[in-house]
Amino acid sequence: MEDLWLSDTNNELTKDIQQVFVSTSALQSRVRELGQEISRDYRGKNPLLVGALKGMIFFMADLLRTITIPVEVDFIAVSSYTNEARDRGVVRVTKDLDLPITGRHVIFVEDVVDTGLTLNYLVNSLRARQPGSLEVCVLFNKATRRLIDLPIRYKGFDLPDYFVVGYGLDHHERYRNLPYVGILKPEVLFTRNG
Ligand code: IMP
Ligand code: MG
């Protein structure tokens, strides 16, 4: 199955992938489990799922379709000022939420937590708006590089310290459209194409 993806010479992106790390079917079954858990935990609560663009787009889209209770969805977009600012966990909001979250049961949906700096900043800024509750749902947890630890209520997969792409995750904005999560070949990882 995984080899099938990489032997698909029709897909221009696969030549840059060293290994399929999480297959499409593994992603789908884990996401479904998370959706079932959320559906159980939030019955009667009309939760609001909030995603930070753009890495979580596939995760959010699939997760939403496995949730069987009423939910709402909103997005926030951030960009880091500089590498240093990012290292301090300072980011700039480029698109704010459309919906008010005060008193709402918010689930913050993120693609990857690595150092935890981005998540920490976003969770703090959401918490300042006084939601009724706030939990974190993360597809990939890279625990080895964590600088700031935040409780993660829903977690898809633990990931070693590899840089992965696909299923929404990018390398210089590319590879988001791969339907699986793969490891880039080193020669691609360390050059900027394009
Ligand atoms: P943190 O602030 O170090 O936790 O960085 C988290 C952010 O870095 C995620 O939201 C992703 O956008 C990005 N990121 C971290 N690891 C990866 C990866 O392996 N592939 C693609 N993006 C990643
Ligand atoms: Mg992200």
Q: How would you explain this protein's 3D organization?
A:
There is one protein chain. With 194 residues, the protein is of the alpha/beta class. Helices cover 27% and strands 28% of the residues. The protein contains 6 helices and 9 strands, in the order H-E-H-E-H-E-H-E-E-H-E-E-E-E-H. The strands form 2 sheets. Strands 4-3-2-5-6-7 form a 6-stranded mixed β-sheet. Strands 1-9-8 form a 3-stranded antiparallel β-sheet. Helix 3 (57-66) links the parallel strand 2 (48-53) and strand 3 (72-80). The radius of gyration is 17 Å and the shape is globular. The protein starts with a helix and ends in a 5-residue tail after the last helix. The model has no long low-confidence stretch (mean pLDDT 92). Bound molecules: inosinic acid (IMP) and magnesium ion.
Structure at a glance:
The protein has helices at 2-6, 24-41, 57-66, 83-87, 117-127, 186-189; strands at 17-22, 48-53, 72-80, 91-95, 105-113, 133-141, 154-158, 164-165, 181-184. The chain is of the alpha/beta class and 194 residues long.
